[in-house]
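S.,

Sequence below, as promised.
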Amino acid sequence: MLRSFEELVAEADTVSVAGWDFSWLNGRATEQRPSWGYQRLMGERLAGSTAALDIQTGGGEVLAGAPTLPRTMVATESWPPNVAKATQLLHPRGAVVVADTDEPPLPFADAAFDLVTSRHPVKAWWTEIARVLQPGGTYFSQHVGPASVFELVEYFLGPQPDRVRRARHPEDTRREAEAAGLQVVDLRFEQLRTEFFDIGAVIYFLRKVIWMVPGFTVVEYRDRLRRLHEQIEADGPFVATTTRFLIEARKPA
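The prediction came back faster than expected:
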């Protein structure tokens, strides 16, 4: 039996969105994963590190999935609910979680780490990344690419200008990393399929990924949400294109 718009909205608007675990969306949305397998590759690099930093760790879920952590393992996070969740998850693994603003400067000494990682950073501050890396050290990350899930963004906000659609382009990121003195040794880009099967999944996603539709609330967008609910019921899942890129950059020895 199909659930009503009101039922779906009430549920999705009250469920907790703390952490970076999207399991609430199981059966309600799907996101195709990049072929390279970021968590596995990150785990391999962590296993060979002696001092690593994970920037914008979220609730610590991705880092906690690594089989082996280095002797010195630090993670940063800015959102207080995520700081608490990451601390609970990572402290038993011997990792230290530092509450940070996600803006320069990073609260660490020069050349403190041989590896810096980040999955889906909101912004990469390249000068700071280069500063805290040891000579010969590596930055390894999966970034959100340009115009990711913009079918959904533009449904609510309307057509976006070209400069907004191009933001987070991998080639622009390469230039920024190189300008900070890093050497990009790997850069891969993929376009992937995302599907939302009900309006509750859309609401949960926009409440959690807050930069997609800044200031999103159910009250503000209720009419648009109702129309999208009716569209999904009539036509099937709402389909969007997710973009991701993998970047690995090294600081010259």
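The longest strand covers residues 183-196.

Coffee later?
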